[in-house]
């Protein structure tokens, strides 16, 4: 057995990704799971009607991440087979949908139309007569191939022979390697820049193995090559290895396959979780980005100054809880605890815009106890404007709007209240301290605040300052340090249930 099993890419926008690969290309979403390597990462798999090996494109969702850089040691482009006579209709479809394209042209005697997906990944449609076990009426047939960039072209081509590929045509800087069904084009990119992981750059390419015996046999043959890893991904068993140029390659079994836990007609409808996170699935589900299938009713996301993400329960009660993470967190970090606090609330997680040693924060600091006051003021103004825009654009009921911040996010939230009291009227501050100096003379009458402190993190100065400005402040202490515990959930849920939403 030889040929491609799947290709895995990275996307920064799950909704745009689904709209392109299902809505535009016509592939079928055959599986959605929490990641096996990182369970807080959504993993989507597209393919033919059965999710057959050789038809699969998979994407790791790095929501709102930066664009990667295509370079040496990575896949440059993915090729999908379509009927040769359909290239013209795909060109018309791309024009009508506003999808960027190049061509048509001819490569190795085959008609080619290059498209770019929403993350910038090159998806090459190749007119070639191939087959797949469960063809889709309007989608591509299967994977036709990949192009890889290498500064060790001879060694990369030779390495591909272990997966059953054979030498074929050589044109310019490209050596074509062929299996029984598809191709790998090895492009000599000596002198080019190395790849950088990110949106629009594939993560790895996987080749087909018949069964576990094939995996073991190949691993034994690679003992002198370098390190390998074997992973059970439930739907297939796989071996990971890097070629001489550092390209990540996978050897994956055909079985058990995508229908092991879903009937063919129900493929892609259920979110599955790896077994090692059993008992934590509700927390993880709260952190994973949500999306709608093409044609389904959806909640449009607006482009606002702060990266943000919604999590909506099946039956929302009209409450919105805005979440501000601690240092090093992101817009999803507080969603598990917030979902336990308010099971029927719509959650709006927001990401701070300041960074320190590549971790997210809400404002700059000069050292551990000295904060950039100008930056706090500037970011507070931006956040207040963000809240105003979010209320208008998303139709949020301000009488049922609450804010919850933790640590650095709580510090910033308190500062926003103190400078722009109309933006935040009901707030939960977890492990907060006073960071704004000097204290503004704003009137906080009508503002309700819950401060939950750990036993060693009580902040009387902030509480006193908020009261001095007119806020109603309820302070509570839980048997913890700076970390959050179950008692925090109970205290906040109790406070939210006291009727502040109507005040």
From TrEMBL:
It comes from the Bacteria. Gene3D superfamilies: 2,3-Dihydroxybiphenyl 1,2-Dioxygenase, domain 1, alpha/beta hydrolase. It holds the Pfam family Glyoxalase. InterPro entries: AB_hydrolase_fold (IPR029058), Extradiol_RC_dioxygenase (IPR052537), Glyas_Bleomycin-R_OHBP_Dase (IPR029068), Glyas_Fos-R_dOase_dom (IPR004360), VOC_core (IPR037523). Coiled coil: none annotated. It is an enzyme of class 1 (oxidoreductase). Residues 3-128, 142-254 form the VOC domain. One of its GO terms (molecular function) is dioxygenase activity. Its EC number is 1.13.11.-. Keywords: Dioxygenase, Oxidoreductase. PROSITE patterns: VOC (PS51819). This is Putative ring-cleaving dioxygenase MhqO. It comes from Roseovarius mucosus.
